[in-house]
Amino acid sequence: MNASDYCPVTREIMEDLKRICGDAFVYSDDARKLAKYSRDKVPGPSGHLPEVVVIPKTAREVAEVVKLANREIIPITPRGAGSGLSGGAVPIYGGILLSVERMNAIIEIDDKNLTAVVEPGVVTNKLDEVLLKYGLFFAGYPMSEEFCFIGGNVAENAGGGRAVKYGVTGQYIHGLEIVAPTGEIIQLGGKRVKDVTGYNMVQLMVGSEGTLGIFTKIFIKLLPCPTVRQAILVLFEDAEAAIAVVPEVMTSGKLVPTSIEFMDGFTNTMGYYAIYHPSVH
User: Fold this and answer.
1) C-alpha dist (Å) from residue 273 to 98, 164, 250, 263, 280
2) What percentage of the chain's residues is helix, strand, coil (to nearest 5)?
3) How many angstroms separate the CA atoms of 254 and 38, rounded?
4) 231: pLDDT confidence band, cut at 50, 70 and 90?
5) If you ran DSSP here, which 8-state letter would residue 226 be given?
6) Strand 106-110 to strand 273-280: parallel, antiparallel, or no bridges (unpaired)?
7) On the chain, which terminus has fewer CB atoms closer than 10 Å, C or N?
8) What is the structure's pLDDT at 266?
9) Please, are residues 208 and 173 in contact by the beta-carbon 8 Å criterion?
């Protein structure tokens, strides 16, 4: 659809949104607040102002907002922390910007089944802090874990430096509760590891950037914390030698590092090349 195919947010629709989410969690007439939700972390003039920002607290509120938008033909853009670099949280057609920032509960830590159940607005680093006392961690590590939301990680299938060993977010998502474009609340998957009946709808939703539904609950696979962590800095004469050693480490050395960082002499301002293993375990 084009922008001209959508309808504007009227005063009556504004009142309906306030009825659903509460007056304090619906913004439309404060340009400064709207601007905050108009872009992600992509540099440059890539933002677009929404007509209204709504901040629901429950899956039921999300469903009611989606039903309203569907009925009135208003575009709706779900948003996590806005820390992405793909434009997935930018409301390019205006309309309703739906932020999940108030949906920030860690619902359950099931350490016996190595599973966490969280709402989409949980900050990634906060989850890992809670998991630490159980000796567990969430391996789907994005680079912005101090402020990114779990929901945004799933929507973007985010990955970071640990992807070398552990892969990306989608490999650790066993289930999702979503609000479909029609406003229905649907659960896909859950705690079961061997859940192989029917279509793999969970992985269809992972990485969909909010185009197929809005996450309201996420079932995450956890791993035991490593018992040893070691950082190694290795210097090389040239880039070719540094790069060539990587497969040797993994095959001949029988060691898969958590992550590998490469810096050339210009970048590190010291005139050498390096491979950096922040946490080999």
Assistant:
1) 45, 20, 20, 6, 19
2) 30, 25, 45
3) 47
4) confident
5) P
6) unpaired
7) N
8) 74
9) no
Closest CA relative to residue 119, chosen from 100, 144, 147: 100
Residue 91 near residue 6 (C-beta atoms within 8 A) = no
Are 243 and 121 contacting, i.e. CB atoms less than 8 angstroms apart? no
Share of the chain above pLDDT 90, in %: 63
Closest CA to 110 of 167, 175, 66: 175
Plot region of 164 (φ>0 → left; ψ -120 to 50 → alpha; else → beta): alpha
Residue with tokens 């269809």: 204
Predicted model pTM: 0.87
| Gap between the Cα atoms of 236 and 263, Å rounded | 11
pLDDT tens-digit series, residues 19-77: 999 999 999 998 899 999 999 888 877 789 999 999 999 999 999 999 999 999 999 99
**Using CA atoms, how far apart are residues 156 and 205, in angstroms rounded to an integer?**
10
Rounded Cα distance, 153 and 141, in Å: 9
Amino acid 280: pLDDT: 41
How many angstroms from the chain centroid is the CA of residue 270?
A: 36
Between CA 76 and CA 93 the distance in angstroms is 8
Alpha-carbon distance of 133 to 75, in angstroms, equals 42
Determine the 3-state secondary structure of 76 from DSSP: strand
Q: How confident is the model at residue 81 (pLDDT cuts 50, 70, 90)?
A: very high
